[in-house]
């Protein structure tokens, strides 16, 4: 008989160790951070060692935690692959598409049903991650946001993103004079692209517009782009935002673009590995993505 701690506690530990965050693990497992903390505490008591060093703002793995994590991670990965193979062997057809968190929330999630309409014998599995996933093992294809250069992968260009000021029509911003009195909404670009001229910020747009007397650093700043979008929708100010991510709100009149000037940013591409190119799952994803998200 195997002498193992509760499998649920091991699963919680693996998620928390992989993300180095009890909060993020809780979101992944659809439980509360308190439940995650309790499960890990019970696991530590069961095996008699501490697995995490708990700080005021973050957690880190102890030496014991670092020793245990790879084995559990690889074990759960193997279990997941085995189950997926069993499901596929029973006739289920699963197409796995990865994208950034923002594009998933603002564009893919609102169109996911159309995939089932077009391919009723397939199940669409959507994976939202800002990390680069393994396109041989973890996804059949991915929609990526960046320069378009992905060595070793096949790339199909979809469209170029553009940024412009957008706001609620209730703010009545129609001129530079009104913009000077408005609250500017910002978000922080990731470290990988920060400083790149395509990571568009208010300072660039104001310079291109020839707008004088406006402090580009004032206003409200968010660490997450999606939160900046929500603030603009809620009428909390005017955001320099991706027109791709607010396309539906602009079409519905929930948001307006007071100024015609927009600046080019990064591009969206569909990418997949050469080995995946012959998979039926990759083929249906290519057709569906091109139909709904190619140049517009």
UniProtKB/TrEMBL annotation:
<dbReference type="InterPro" id="IPR000847">
    <property type="entry name" value="LysR_HTH_N"/>
</dbReference>
<keyword id="KW-0804">Transcription</keyword>
<dbReference type="Pfam" id="PF00126">
    <property type="entry name" value="HTH_1"/>
</dbReference>
<dbReference type="InterPro" id="IPR005119">
    <property type="entry name" value="LysR_subst-bd"/>
</dbReference>
<dbReference type="GO" id="GO:0006351">
    <property type="term" value="P:DNA-templated transcription"/>
</dbReference>
<dbReference type="InterPro" id="IPR036390">
    <property type="entry name" value="WH_DNA-bd_sf"/>
</dbReference>
<feature type="domain" description="HTH lysR-type">
    <location>
        <begin position="10"/>
        <end position="62"/>
    </location>
</feature>
<keyword id="KW-0238">DNA-binding</keyword>
<dbReference type="Pfam" id="PF03466">
    <property type="entry name" value="LysR_substrate"/>
</dbReference>
<dbReference type="GO" id="GO:0043565">
    <property type="term" value="F:sequence-specific DNA binding"/>
</dbReference>
<dbReference type="InterPro" id="IPR036388">
    <property type="entry name" value="WH-like_DNA-bd_sf"/>
</dbReference>
<protein>
    <submittedName>
        <fullName>LysR family transcriptional regulator</fullName>
    </submittedName>
</protein>
<dbReference type="GO" id="GO:0003700">
    <property type="term" value="F:DNA-binding transcription factor activity"/>
</dbReference>
<dbReference type="InterPro" id="IPR058163">
    <property type="entry name" value="LysR-type_TF_proteobact-type"/>
</dbReference>
<keyword id="KW-0805">Transcription regulation</keyword>
<comment type="similarity">
    <text>Belongs to the LysR transcriptional regulatory family.</text>
</comment>
């Amino acid at each position: 008989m195997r002498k193992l701690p509760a499998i649920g506690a091991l699963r919680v530990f693996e998620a928390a160790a992989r993300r180095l965050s009890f909060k993020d693990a809780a979101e992944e497992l659809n439980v509360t951070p308190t439940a995650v903390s309790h499960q890990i505490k019970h696991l530590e008591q069961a095996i008699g060692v501490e697995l995490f060093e708990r700080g005021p703002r973050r957690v880190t793995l102890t030496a014991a935690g670092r020793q245990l994590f790879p084995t559990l991670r690889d074990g759960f990965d193997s279990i997941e692959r085995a189950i997926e193979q069993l499901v596929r062997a029973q006739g289920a057809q699963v197409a796995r598409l990865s994208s950034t968190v923002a594009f998933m929330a603002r564009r893919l999630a609102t169109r996911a049903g159309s995939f089932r309409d077009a391919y009723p014998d397939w199940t669409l599995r959507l994976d939202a991650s800002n990390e680069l996933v393994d396109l041989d093992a973890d996804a059949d294809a991915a929609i990526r946001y960046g320069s378009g250069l992905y060595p070793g992968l096949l790339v199909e260009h979809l469209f170029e993103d553009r940024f412009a000021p957008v706001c609620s029509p209730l703010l009545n911003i129609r001129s530079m004079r009104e913009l000077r009195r408005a609250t500017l909404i910002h978000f922080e670009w990731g470290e990988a692209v920060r400083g790149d001229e395509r990571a568009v910020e208010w300072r660039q747009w104001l310079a291109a517009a020839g707008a004088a007397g406006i402090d580009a650093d004032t206003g409200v700043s968010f660490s997450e782009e999606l939160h900046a979008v929500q603030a603009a929708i809620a009428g909390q100010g005017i955001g320099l935002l991706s027109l791709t991510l607010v396309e539906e709100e602009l079409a519905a009149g929930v948001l307006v673009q007071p100024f015609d000037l927009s600046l080019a940013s990064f591009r969206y591409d569909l990418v997949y590995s050469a080995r995946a190119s012959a998979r039926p799952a990759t083929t249906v994803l290519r057709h569906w993505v091109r139909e709904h998200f190619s140049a517009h």
